[in-house]
Amino acid sequence: MIMFKRITVSALAALLVLPSLPVSAATGSYSEKHEVVYATLDANGSQEEMYVVNNFTMEKPGDITDFGPYTSVHNLTNLEEINQSGNKVEVTTEEEEFYYQGDLEGQDLPWDIRVSYKLDGKKVSPEELAGKDGSLEIHINTKKNKQAEDVFFNHYLMQISLTLDGDRYENIQAPEGTVANAGKDRRVTYTVMPEKEGSFVMKADATDLEMEPIEFAAIPSSMSIDAPDIGGVKSDMTSLSDATAEVNRGVGELKNGITQTNNGAASLYDGSVQFRNGINELSSGSDELVQGSARIQSALDEISQSVSGSGGGSLGDFAKMEEGLRQIAGGLQEVENGLVGLKDQYSQANQALGQSIDAIPGYEITEADIQKLYESGADKAVVDKLLETYKAAQTVKGTYAEVREAFGAVAPALDQSAGALSDMSANLNGMADQLSSSLDNVDIDESMKQLQEGLGQLASQYQSFHAGLKDYTGGVDQLAGSYSDLHNGIAGLTNGTSELENGAAQLHNGTSELASETSDLPTQIDQEIDKMVEEYDKSDFEPVSFVSSKNEKVGSVQFVIKTESIKKPEEKEEAPEVEEEKNFWDRLVDLFK
């Protein structure tokens, strides 16, 4: 009986041991391996813990091998033991999907993450924030970790998320992020593109401050980016390019017009100088002309009175009278010659002035033209000078148009005055000739009577002429004084058009450069879009393992990173009194109580 029991026990022991005997398993295979890297940071972003969850999609059950510098490994699929030797991990699985966790120490994340906090403008530590009220600022900065492999920094897109309790946070501001509702919470999200560093600021008014962990999720930016349809934009850019070229042509025409205006202004100035000199000479000679005319009038009056009071005279008196008449006629001839000379000088000067002012272009620049010129990107100061000179030129042209008739009347007046003097000189010479030819055979008394009447009429006519001459010379003096101001304005216009021509040349150089730079805008847009697509299109990225380059068939690697939360310390609850556990005898005694 004892022997039987021993045998039974032995057999049972053998049965229990048999399943544990090593069995040669078949080699397994998998189609893809996926890695999810989990990392925790403190509230300032310093790295604390890290582990990787490895997932295998099995093609054939059996033994598989993986690699990684894990400090420990844990089977997350079943209770099978995982064998680890150095960086080599071996496992046998019958499952279609197999998961295991590997813990890491000293492994650097691809990103260097830094988080800092300000409350009411003062920098504070995360430990000081819990339970506080005030204006909160959170600064988040990410950059490449030079100690880590750069393949993930160059190809991965990172999303940063903050979850804020709607009861604790108000007036949330995230200029470079998006704010969305998530129930009663607010979710603030930022995005960092591959190969880029991030720098973000979130502001909010906090009450009884607490905050969930800040989450950093990084995945491959492997989506294919198609070039956008920019047909409409290219059409607009072509229109802009054509418009810029048109503006440049317009500015070129404007420059040519300004050059003509400047040349006209220079001619106008030269003509104005001649006119000013002529009018000044005429004004300077006016005094002598008036004084000479006064002497002639005085002589005529004296002769007329002498003849009237003589009642007759000898032949010698008539001979002297003849000589006096011829002298007066000669004086009138000199005055006439002077007026003719002045008239010629004035006519030449007035003609030069008129031609110069007529050379100023009379085209009209509309407000629309001016606005278009300002919007062309031209130098505003140059455009202002253009308009100022344009207005000054048109003012001179308008002013001259108003006084042109008065300027034109001067030469005919001089002609008329010279003609009157010529007639009076001819009459005097005629009287002298008649007096000379009739001394021997004419009745002296009758001749004296005719002579008295002729001299009286001549003296009266000359008195009117002398009064008109004084009025004329007074007008000439006034014209000479007024023209000085006009000439100064013409001089200023000439200087302005010269500066304007230089400014227009600079403006045309600028618009020519602008037209040249924008002539191929559609092509430049295509090139920039191709460059951007090439920069952000990571569709050709081949995933690699984060833990070991020996790992094959890597389908994806993802990163899930969280900071620690900011929480107020929990209040300790008093532990309830624990009744002392009663033994068997105490409970037995209680039954009889």
From TrEMBL:
Highest taxon of source: Bacteria
Species for this entry: Halobacillus salinus
Keywords assigned by UniProt, alphabetized: Signal
Protein name: YhgE/Pip domain-containing protein
Signal sequence residues: 1-25
